Amino acid sequence: MRVVVTFALFCLSVVLVMATAGRAAADVLVADLSQHKIKISTGFAGTELLLFGVTKSAGDIIVIVSGPEAKAVVRKKSRVSGIWINADSVAFDAVPGFYHVAATNNLSETKLDKVLRENGVGFRYLNMAPTTKTEPERAAEFQQALLRRKVAKGLYNASTGRIEVLENSLFRTNVPFPANVPTGRYRVDVFHVQDGWVTATTSIPLSVGKVGMEEQIFLFAHDQPALYGLFAILIAAAAGYGAGMMFGRR
After folding, report:
1. How many domains does the chain have?
2. By the 8 A CB rule, do 42 and 15 touch?
3. Are 93 and 144 within 8 A, CB to CB?
4. Strand residue runs (E) in 106-194
5. What is the CATH number of the domain that holds 109?
6. pTM, whole model, 2 decimals?
7. Angstrom distance (rounded) from CA 139 to CA 135
8. What's the rounded Cα separation, in Å, for the pair 196 and 181?
9. Top-confidence residue, 211 or 19
10. Rounded Cα–Cα distance for residues 249 and 246 (Å)
């Protein structure tokens, strides 16, 4: 209900703005999210946000949700003397922990190729530079393996999400976030494309963070890693001692 009310108020405000803006609003693109922070607490099983907006001009709408970026290492296992070991690896920089693309139309259309390439939209143009010195073919092979792993974990969408258009101006799409979504700051970019050119863009802030006891433990582990490690060892030792006492008495 809260999402519906937010969407209705948003649409009303945009209509009023566009009605008074006249010709200056020819390329207006306004968008927002149903909420700007995803709170991860005990029992978090994933969530779904509503992205909605309005544009006055005809054309395509493309949405990219990505972040946070971090280094990733892809390892290839080989069997040596009957044992599987990590025989090869390639490291990549600035790899989004989460990546979701949605669009009003098929992104495989030739007229959109220039826009996709210039803005790094989709797996084909996702910029993940290898930090390991290697041949382009080998880097591409390991990058494909990294993409498959992200898709399997539900962190990247294998197929483009659908954006619904209402009354030729209002648009909306749902962005699903899995239970294992990484914490941090995200980029939500919305593009309006017409005749193969980006005519308007807008960005929306989004963050994913832990709350409650999970947040306190997370901050403690990052702010005081040595002390956190000591506590973890003491707790494990105490648990092992307690288990030994219980089974020993039997």
Report:
1. 1
2. no
3. no
4. 161-162, 164-166, 170-177, 184-194
5. 2.60.40.1930
6. 0.75
7. 6
8. 33
9. 211
10. 5
Strands 83-103 and 161-162: parallel
Which among 15, 29, 22 is positioned nearest to 199, based on CA atoms?
29
Residue 239 falls within a domain, yes or no? no
Neighbouring residues of 137: CB distance < 8 A, sequence distance ≥ 6: none
Task: Please say if the pLDDT value at position 15 is more than 70.
Answer: no
Distance (Å) of CA 56 to CA 17, 28, 53: 11, 6, 10
Domain hosting 104: range is 2-225
Q: Please, are residues 147 and 127 in contact by the beta-carbon 8 Å criterion? A: no
Pairwise CA distance, residues 184 & 192, whole Å: 26
- Does residue 244 fall inside a structural domain? no
For position 32, what pLDDT does the model report?
Answer: 95
pLDDT, residue 233, reads 72
Q: Which tokens sit at 80?
A: 């040596």
- Give the pLDDT band (50/70/90) at residue 24: very low
9, 54 Cβ separation under 8 angstroms: no
For 107-115, what is the mean pLDDT? 80
**Helix extents (H) in the chain:** 2-21, 113-119, 136-152, 213-223, 225-249
The answer to whether position 70 is within a domain reads yes
Q: Is residue 245 part of a domain?
A: no
pLDDT tens-digit profile of 32-90? 999 999 999 888 999 999 999 999 888 899 999 999 999 999 988 776 666 666 678 89
Q: How far apart are CA 195 and CA 109, in angstroms?
A: 12
